[in-house]
Amino acid sequence: MGKIIVAHSFRGGTGKSSIIANLAACLACRGHRVCIVDTDVQSPGVHVFFGLKAEDTTPSLNEYLWGRCTIEEAARDVSERLSGVSGAGGRVFLVPSSIGVNDITRILKEGYEVSALSEGFSRIMRSLNLDYLLIDTHPGIGEESLLSLAISDVLLIIMRPDYQDYQGTSVTLEVCRRLEVPRPLLVVNKLLAGYDARRIAREAEKTYLCEVAAVLPQSDDLMRLESKSVIYTSQRDHPISREIDKIADRIAAVR
Ligand SMILES: Nc1ncnc2c1ncn2[C@@H]1O[C@H](COP(=O)(O)OP(=O)(O)OP(=O)(O)O)[C@@H](O)[C@H]1O
Ligand SMILES: [Mg+2]
């Protein structure tokens, strides 16, 4: 059975989608079959890293949740867009959320059965024979996020070195304890040059009593990509890619 990896943060813009997209590429370059599900129905974005335009986001998770298609029909194989994935025998699938304004307003207004989401996760894990299901989430504590946290095998809590994020991370970890999330891991992102990554990691581990899986630097190279592609496949030795490798190593060690 594959593992469910969830990226979450209390606040927005911490780097969840960037990290999930790069982690998917990394795991697939190691020969794994992975699928990203964008559960951020309010403000979807992870599809952009794989070159999907707005009109390419249909059929989406929305159609699946409304019972108009199967979850497999909403999944597309984006492996060919990532160099090094096919050669390694890996695969990356993506279930996007719709970026259509009517779809977003409808799903926010009418809601959906959260149980359909967990059924979809189990189903696609089996039918696509996945090694990893990677779930991108909306920030904060909402019903879908709580579900994703609760069913995760590994939860990546992404935070910036910022006191609003620090407070938010405490809240998330408290929720994790209540939900008995088996393996929360902290990922610090956007560390400014001149900060000591090891010291930040040590302090975070002491404060939160939670392991730090990686510390990613603030990177102009990443910003220059404008979310239009993942950095991992084009620059394997980039400091961001090396930290993504660390996250993948840590995940691989989870039994
Ligand atoms: N290490 C980094 N260095 C520089 N820019 C980064 C880094 N990580 C992410 N970014 C940039 O920060 C912005 C937000 O990243 P991203 O969309 O991945 O965050 P998010 O947590 O998914 O946001 P949201 O909560 O809105 O879904 C993007 O422009 C992305 O390119
Ligand atoms: Mg995002």
Number of domains: 1
Number of helices: 9
Write the CATH homologous superfamily.
P-loop containing nucleotide triphosphate hydrolases
**What's the helix-strand series?**
EHEHEEHHEHEHEHEHH
Helical proportion, percent range: 25-40%
Unique bound compounds: adenosine-5'-triphosphate, magnesium ion
Number of strands: 8
Strand content: 15-25%
The chain-level structural class is alpha/beta
What's the overall average pLDDT, rounded?
A: 97
Report the span from N to C terminus: 11 Å
Q: In terms of per-residue confidence, which ranges show pLDDT below 50 for 5 or more consecutive residues?
A: none
Question: Would you give an account of this structure?
Answer:
The structure is a single chain. The chain has one domain: Rossmann fold. The radius of gyration is 17 Å and the shape is globular. By secondary structure, the chain is of the alpha/beta class. It has an eight-stranded mixed beta sheet with strand order 3-4-2-5-1-6-7-8, with helices on both faces. The protein has helices at residues 16-29, 61-65, 101-110, 114-127, 143-151, 163-179, 197-208, 220-224, 239-252; strands at 3-8, 33-38, 76-77, 91-95, 132-136, 154-159, 184-191, 212-217. Residues 9, 12-18, 40, 43, 45, 139, 189-190, 216, 218-219, 222-223, 227, 240 line the site of adenosine-5'-triphosphate.
